[in-house]
Predict the structure.
Amino acid sequence: MESNGGDASRILREIETLKATKTEIEQRISALEAQLRETNLDDRTGTVLNGSCPPISTVHSDFGHSLSPEMIYRYSRHLLLPSFGVQGQSNLIKSSILVVGAGGLGSPALLYLAACGVGRLGIVDHDVVELNNMHRQIIHREEYIGQPKVKSAAASCLSINSTINIVEHKEALRTSNALDILSQYDIIVDATDNAPSRYLISDCCVVLGKPLVSGAALGMEGQLTVYNYNGGPCYRCLFPTPPPTTACQRCSDSGVLGVVPGIIGCLQALEAIKIASAVGEPLTGRMILFDALSARIRIVKIRGRSLQCEVCGENATFTRQQFQEFDYEKFTQSPLSTLPVTLNLLQADSRISSKEFKEKIAKGEAHVLIDVRPQHHFKIVSLPGSLNIPLPSLEARLSEISATLEDNEKGKYSGSGPQIFVVCRRGNDSQRAVQYLHKVGFTSAKDIIGGLEGWARDVDPDFPAY
Amino acid sequence: MQLTLEFGGGLELLCNSVKIHNVNVEPQDIELQGGTKKLIMKDLLTWIRGNLIKERPEMFMKGDTVRPGVLVLVNDCDWELSGQLNTTLEEKDVVVFISTLHGG
Ligand SMILES: [Zn+2]
């Protein structure tokens, strides 16, 4: 059996290595193919200039535009649009667009921007692909789980259109690198997932004078507008003061229907394409509010550039240096990365590790386990015997806790009185609950450190994560 | 006065998860101007806080206005363009309160 186990892990390792090599080779082939095309193009131009006679079909300078025969065929359906045509496509091919975030919004945005022939397409992301991304981050393939999102996204883009230039920025956007990265592109697409990044990107776009296509999605709703373009407002004109952190929900906490960011991401690609090709009316001074559940789309008129705006206003003097020194995490009271926050509200003796809790169960010690997650979380998975009292209803349901304690005391267990343990998803709400329980007299209540995620990590690897 | 009030971007959670409220608000605490009673947004916010917001009012208001991060739209138009708290409301107006989203 042991040798079988060893074989299996050796084979798995070899598969991993081969997969990685395969990806590398595929990318090298794409890059070389693109290079070959460039070389052919240069050669042809060179021949024409040298005055010799190249085959007629390759002399595309004769067509009065810069599109090669291959481009004409690839983008023919764009060229056939009277309102887009050769001019629109030529503009697109000459343009450069940066997409910040290769997640739910960035996935479809990048796919369409690559497909439509944007000359240079940049991708910023520091994260790796995870299984729970796949339902909405449709640019990634299962074989890329565990690998950097930029790498995965770049490979997908190149497999759709190997003739464009894809630039991978495998780093988190910060004040220290944002000016350098954003300045290399004509148009910026904000496909991030947190408040500090949104202020950071908008301010950087104002400093550099770049149009910003901003999208957001959560739950069943999406929002979209273009900032800092054609006299329109910047993000700060609209939201001079950051919202309280409690109002900043994340997809990883509140959930999101996969197709909703997909729709907003597609609209972001559309707005970026319109600006890049100089076609149509950009969504500036207006905002799209999308409600998937009721199938309603509102297009509302928003304020113009605010004269009082601290960044783009009349008397604003927001310089590159001020931008680089600005603390966006402090300003919004939330982290730039998507890592969940870990609170530490309680004394050590009011807490217990999941392993210690497991030992107490094994010994048959009297206890009541309260799970303070919302009911729809509890329905996904829960520990056996736990009592679901969502945190907001804790105050109203204290009597249930008392009743359960009494039941347990009537002889189910022997020894000292039952103890209260509180669990949640990650171990933050459980601490809030214990704080409250202490205040109202349940002084022995303890929280299980790290919540159910800790339980799955340290005690039961088969316990489902979500 | 018949008004349609809509809450979105998570604000609906503060009023029993109901997004659209068709309400009848009678002008109160109002000054008489030109002989007509006027209902302004400031009055409406007070009314909403007292009649629709069921929990965590601090997630909807700060001081006498909406909290940072909430867009207010009167007939699909940013209230900054119509006088903010002093925007005059009329019969059948649609007022939308939407919390800005950050997710992606
Ligand atoms: Zn501004």
The CA atoms of residues 57 and 63 of chain B lie 11 Å apart. The pocket of zinc ion is lined by residues A 233-234, 236-237, 305-306, 309, 311-312 (CB under 6 Å).
